[in-house]
Amino acid sequence: MSGLGRSTVLLAVAAVILAAGCRRHAASVSGDVTLDGQPLTTGVVSFTPATSGASAYANIGGDGRYELKTGAAEGLEPGPYKVTVAANATAEQAAAMGVKIGREGIMPLLTPAKYADISSTPLTVDVKAGSQEVDLALEADRPKKK
Fold it and tell me: Residue 84: which residues within 8 A CB-CB, separation 6 or more?
């Protein structure tokens, strides 16, 4: 193979690799995350397929917004998902809550535990192809009235 032919093949292979690394899924999901009407400014949102496939994740930004990715690819595949949200308190928030930080340095959850567990989360979403806004409104656990 001539030098020009080899260069052309190498460029084509590089283009395929780059395109695979920049893969976009058929759906994109973003939105706001609130707890009792107030934006969460930290934490992680995950969408786990109800059947099979890869989960999508996003960090919650300082403005309470998230945008899902599946691995390095933007978006996720359409279908039904269970949604979990987990946000840990900062050291200042833990102190304000009167919670002592353990030896492991693990901060307490700001979000109710049911939202962080795939088996107990009440959040489900049927993701459609295309771009969509899915706001996640979490509510703190309230004592049950007798």
Answer: 45, 46, 48, 115, 116, 117, 118, 121, 123
Q: Which tens digit of pLDDT belongs to each residue from 17-71?
A: 444 444 567 899 999 999 999 999 999 999 999 988 899 999 999 999 999 998 8
Locate 36 and state its tokens: 């009792």
Residues 28 and 132 sit within 8 Å (Cβ to Cβ): yes
3-state class (DSSP) for residue 44? strand
| CATH superfamily label, 3-138 | Carboxypeptidase-like, regulatory domain (2.60.40.1120)
Please give the distance of CA 133 from its chain centroid, rounded to a whole number. Answer: 13
Please check whether residue 28 is in contact with residue 67, taking contact to mean a CB–CB distance below 8 angstroms. Answer: yes
SS3 135: coil
C-beta separation of 68 from 102 below 8 A: no
Phi, psi angles (nearest 5°) of residue 73: -90, 145
Q: Are strands 27-35 and 130-133 parallel, antiparallel or unpaired?
A: parallel
Query: pTM for the complete prediction?
Result: 0.76
